[in-house]
Amino acid sequence: MEVEVKLRLPDSTAHQKLTTLLSPYRTKTHFQQNLFFDTNPKNTLSKHSSTLRLRFYNMDTHATLTLKSKPKITNGISQAQELEEPIDPTIARTISLDPTQFATLVKESKILQKVESEYGVVWDEMVCLGGFKNVRFVYEWNGLKLEVDESLFDFGVSYEIECECDDPQEAQVMIEEMLRSNAIRFSYSKVSKFGVFRSGKLPEFE
């Protein structure tokens, strides 16, 4: 189970203010591309409240295959069942161009075995839904790993803070106190980045 604090920032100004504030704690920066897959026309994964994703990092230096299921976001805390595996980025690129090639990896991938056996996915029906790019700044701050995202969709840019941890309630209090004390506006995320992508529009900032 993946449990994260997820807080939205209103705009690039708030994002710049936060990243400047946290700059002494930055440990790395990731340039990511996220691509999502489902069957056409059955939408098999969506009907099981699941998402299959290929993520490419830093000019294809590495890649991951991820299955997320049954996501739920309540008061800025996100929960989802998650399985993730590394995948050769060259193979991942080939699959992104021809998603039916997922079938060639079933024997070596527990994720794809689950998708096939539990969801009944037909690989010949698999298509790429598209995706978005993301710039992720990673910080080690007060014992927490903070990830500050700038997500670039075809229809706009969104900004978000994520923090995966064992005690999300305590982490949320710490993060919110830091934001308020530095006059950085925020709101609770109500939908995942995949949900934003599928909606085709940025959610209103509340």
From TrEMBL:
InterPro entries the UniProt entry points to: CYTH-like_dom_sf, CYTH_domain
Domain CYTH: 1-201
UniProt xrefs under Pfam families: CYTH
GO molecular function list: pyrophosphatase activity
Annotated coiled-coil segments of the chain: none
Superkingdom classification of source: Eukaryota
SUPFAM superfamilies (UniProt xref): CYTH-like phosphatases
Protein name: CYTH-like domain-containing protein
Organism expressing this protein natively: Artemisia annua
